[in-house]
Every structure is written in C-alpha cells, then in structure tokens.
Amino acid sequence: MTVTVRFAPSPTGLIHIGNSRTALFNWLFAKKHGGRFILRFDDTDLERSRREYADAIERDLAWLGLVPDRMERQSERLEIYDAAVQRLKDAGLLYPCYETADELDRRRSRARALGRPPVYDRAALRLSDEQKALFEAEGRKPHWRFLLPNFDQDPEQIRRTDESWEDLCRGPQTIDLGSMSDPVLVRENGAYLYTLTSIVDDIDMGITHIIRGEDHVANTAVQLAIFRALGAEPPVFGHHNLLTTADGEGLSKRKGALSIGSLREDGLEPMAVASLAVLTGTSHAVEAVATMDELGDRFDLAGVSRSSAKFDPHELVGLNARLVHAMPFSVVSSRLCDLGIQAEEDFWLTVRENCERVSDAHLYWQIVKGTVEAEVDPEDRDFLVAARRLLPDGPVDASTWKTWTDALKAETGRKGRGLFMPLRRALTGLDHGPDMGALLPFIGQQNILDRLP
Questions:
Q1: Does 141 count as an annotated binding residue?
Q2: What whole-number distance in Å separates Cα of residue 127 and Cα of residue 133?
Q3: What CA–CA distance (Å, rounded) separates 149 from 147?
Q4: What family name appears in the similarity comment (predicted)?
C-alpha cells in the first residue's frame, strides 16, 4: 500500500499559517512514508470559489516547498459525484426531505425546549408519494439526507451505535451515531456538500490517511458510515490541534490572518513559517529548522498536543533571524543581486548576524556605498575632528579600526561607549550594527573622511 494523503482547500480566500499547518503535516507524513501528496481544490461552490485563489494557494504551497504529486479540481469531477449519489439512492440510503430552513429551526427549538437533543426526527421518511407530490407542486425542491446506520429494522427506533477509530493524533475515539442527525449530502439546488464530494474523491484517489484539523472530529463518525455505504474501507484518520493567536482567537481565511502570501511579501523565509507551523503545539521545542528533511525528522503526529496551539506571530521574526544568521553566501547571493547588492561573500558574512531578513542587508549596502546623514552631538564634534586627523593613511583593512581607536583613546582619554558610539553614529547613522572593525573596509577611506567633520 502506497501512503496517499491530500490537502483539500476551498479556493475562496488566501491560505494562512493555520492552513499551512495541515498541508505541511500531510506533506511530511507522505514523505516520511515514501508516499504521495495530492492537492485537491474543493471548488464546487461556484459563487465563492475563484481561480486566482487556487493559483495563489498553489504558489504559496510551492514557496513552502510543497509541490503536489497530483492536482485535482472538484468542479471537474461532477459526473463521479452524480454516480455516487445515484448509488446511495438506489440503496435506499439517501432520502428526500422537504422542510424549509425555518421549519427545521422551529423543530430544533422545540426539541431543546423539551430537553431533547436537536436531532432531525426523520419525518421525511414517513411522507407518502402523494405528500411529496404536493410539496413538489408548491415549488419545493428536496434536499437529500444520508440515512445513518443507527437502527436495527425500523429507522425511527434509533439506538446507540458507536463508531470508533484509532486517531493518529488523539488516540482511541468513539462517537455515537444515535446522537446525530442524518447529514444533508445534496442541497435543494442540487449542489453537493463537501462531505459527499470529499468521500467520493478519497475513495477514487486511493487516499489512505486523512490528516486534518480537530474541528472535523465530530464529522468523522458520519463519514466512516458513508465510506462503508459506498463499499470502501475508510482511511486512517488523524486530527491535529489548531493554531490560534496568543489570545486564543482562531484564524480565518476571510480575515486574511497571517496569509502565506503576506508572510512571503514581508521577507520571511519559508522554513521559518514551516518551523513555526509544524512545531508549535507539539512535544518539540519551537526552533528554526533549516531544511524540510530536518523538519521531517522531528515530525511526529503522536507528539501533537490535544490542547490548542497558541503562538505569537512575532515569534516568526526571531525564527527568521536565526535562519538568516546561519545562511551561507551561496544561498543568498542571487537574492542579494536582486536587491541591487553587488557584494562578495565577506560583506554578507559581516552583516548577516544583524539581519532579521535577507532584505535587511540592503540597509548596510547603502551605508557602505551610499551617503549617510548623521547628526553629530555638539559634545562629540571635537572628538570626531580628532578622529579625522588620526585616521591611518592608506587602504582601510581589518586592522584599521583597532589602530585608529587605540590612537584616539590615547589622545582623548575616551574609552568604551564614549569612544566607539560617536564613530559608529557618524559613519553609519546608526547606534547599532555589524562589528565596525569588519565593516570599516567596505566603507573605505574616502567615505570615512567624507562623513567626519
């Protein structure tokens, strides 16, 4: 058996870091087991689905390093769903219901008032052909419900029916089908709900493992029953915890919360995003992991916590910085060129530990090659005049800074911050940055003289 998983987003918005957690879990699981990863767009909602969102999702996944082995669109598979629906109807497992949304709401309210669970009472099963014809004559269109296997002979005599599975993340799980309403699989307008299309696709595509968010746990028992009704052995399920903000707020595509596209445009590294998305809320410490192979070595669904995975988006910047600080020049050279930085390896090694993002190197390139506007504190002016006079002659090299500051210290008596900070501010316009001894040769003698009073 080849392990086959899928990530099935709806192209109704941009995916965020929470969505990427599910995609990454599936990708890493497939790669760990030598399996396949399918990207499947749930785009049967023609009013809300957009091709530009699907393209953006594909682009965002590729940026993270997730390239699918196969890609499908549910909007192109309607005939397969038609056949499945007919099969369920022929088996007497899909029955028409004519209640309006208001009528169903009133029934649920009455049930709650009487202390009963608001479960659909299967009243539609008692309709005669004449009653159905009257509803049709009124212009009502039926929605179709799947008859859950929670009875012996009489569907109105519902009994406790435990549906159990071994969850990859949560361990043994059991849900009573007798406590649930028969799910609607086909709407009044003939549109298929995701529950149906997803199961049909999972069967047709040979999905062996379904790894998704814990918000789908309650649906699993129903879906197991539908798999079996369609003559298929259900896949193995795993329900991981969900990412939330630090205050516990859930993420939403509609709000564009931490979309992968926005994180990319902010200059963050894909492995910083992947490290946070995968390791938050697990038994592993959240730290920057440089490669997907290394992240895969730490990935373990059994180590996923059952509590929600709260994270601070600012943590991304820290993870990103740690990755940037370790990046070799060979990895960033083309990106530096794209930023207009025509630098050699020594420049990158000098500035990288002061960069939270690779793009931060542009600031230091401007400092060494451009002009610097720095305000000189009046009390430092005489000191900087002396500094100009004491600058060693000849090319600036790795020894210049120490020779220069030693001479300044001897003449002015300054030391520590009082010695170094006025020079740093005058030469870079900043009060922090790379080691001045290493940076000074890139600034060069002429720029040094030009920036001193």
A1: no
A2: 10
A3: 6
A4: Belongs to the class-I aminoacyl-tRNA synthetase family. Glutamate--tRNA ligase type 1 subfamily.
Rounded CA-CA distance 285/280 in Å is: 8
Say how far apart CA 67 and CA 94 lie, in whole Å: 37
Tokens of 224: 């197991």
Per the listing, tokens 């600031």 go with 363
d(CA 272, CA 386): 46
- Tell me the two tokens of residue 12: 């109704």
- Asked whether residue 78 carries a pLDDT value surpassing 70, the answer given is yes
Structure confidence by residue, pLDDT tens digits, 217-233: 999 999 999 999 999 99
Q: Report residue 137: phi and psi, to 5°.
A: -65, -30
Q: Which single residue is written with the structure tokens 């406790």?
A: 160
pLDDT of 253 > 80? The answer is no
pLDDT single digits (tens) 123-135: 999 999 999 999 9
Cβ neighbours for 280, distance < 8 A, ≥ 6 positions apart: 21, 243, 286, 309, 310, 311
Write the DSSP symbol of residue 340: T
User: Which residues lie closer than 8 Å to 371 by C-beta, 6 or more apart?
Assistant: none
Say which CATH topology domain 1-71+195-326 has.
Rossmann fold (3.40.50)
For 21-50, write each residue's pLDDT tens digit: 999 999 999 999 999 999 999 998 888 889
Instruction: Tell me the CATH number of domain 80-168+174-179, given options 3.40.50.300, 3.30.70.580, 3.90.800.10, 3.40.50.620.
Output: 3.90.800.10
pLDDT of residue 257: 56
Structure token pair of residue 163 = 């549906």
Mean pLDDT calculated for residue range 340-357? 95
Rounded Cα–Cα distance for residues 37 and 29 (Å): 9
Contact predicate 125/155, CB 8 Å: yes
Contact 389, 407 (CB under 8 A): no
Q: Name the residue among 294, 387, 232 with its Cα closest to residue 65.
A: 294
